[in-house]
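Page 37, continued from 36.
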């Protein structure tokens, strides 16, 4: 799957940002994450080979996974991105956002009920932000909606917000100081999804993972594989 980061940099804006992998990686490289700048890949979707074909192949494109597509500093650049997204109908562009309250002021004039080739994932981590963000998310004109509860920091009830949601992804925090993920919280969200017939994916365990009352410390390389071994993913009927 292709990645497209037309800009980089971000600001911590929610409880889930405490151990953000972007900030950690930038700190090692002595890069200021708070500087929001265009990247050399800004025009990646429409770059062409000598034969006229696009360099970026058809399929799913992960958009702005090193930043936030709705971040304020990118307001003057986003219009060009929407034009490229609209042009590449052979691609499905998927982005996560912690700034869903900005959505209506960030879409193009012809958005209407949404572009068919755009998937929007609203990120939540606790009940406070789930209620705040998902109450906005459910009313937005978006054709393909997902919820990402990662890192999940506590047991949350999102069942009332699952209408029109295609997928819920759950995962823990990966950091030596990570806040723990309780497997019971994961199973609880899965049950909510099953009742509402919404697809569910357990993406990764947390570094500090609690199961059956016992806490485990897992290596980062094993977080996704261990979650997969749980075998609890659910595909809506």
């Amino acid at each position: 799957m292709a990645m497209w980061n037309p800009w980089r940099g971000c600001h911590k804006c929610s409880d889930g940002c405490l151990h953000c992998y972007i900030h950690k990686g930038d700190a090692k490289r002595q890069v200021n994450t708070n500087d929001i700048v265009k990247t050399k890949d800004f025009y990646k979707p429409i770059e062409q080979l000598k034969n006229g074909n696009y360099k970026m192949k058809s399929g799913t494109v992960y958009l702005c996974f090193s930043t936030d597509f709705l971040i304020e500093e990118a307001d003057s650049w986003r219009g060009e991105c929407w034009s490229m997204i609209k042009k590449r109908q052979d691609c499905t562009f998927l982005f996560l956002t912690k700034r869903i309250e900005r959505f209506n002021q960030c879409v193009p004039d012809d958005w209407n009920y949404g572009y068919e080739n755009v998937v929007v994932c609203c990120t939540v981590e606790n009940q406070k932000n789930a209620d705040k963000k998902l109450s906005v998310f459910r009313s937005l004109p978006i054709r393909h909606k997902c919820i990402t509860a990662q890192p999940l920091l506590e047991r949350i009830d999102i069942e009332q917000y699952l209408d029109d949601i295609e997928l819920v992804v759950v995962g823990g925090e990966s950091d030596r100081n990570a806040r723990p993920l309780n497997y019971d919280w994961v199973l609880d969200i899965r049950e909510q999804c099953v009742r509402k017939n919404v697809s569910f994916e357990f993406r990764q365990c947390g570094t500090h993972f609690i199961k059956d009352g016992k806490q485990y410390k897992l290596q980062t390389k094993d977080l996704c594989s261990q979650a997969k071994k749980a075998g609890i993913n659910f595909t809506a009927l």
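The longest strand covers residues 91-97. Flag for discussion at group meeting. The chain has five helices and twelve strands.
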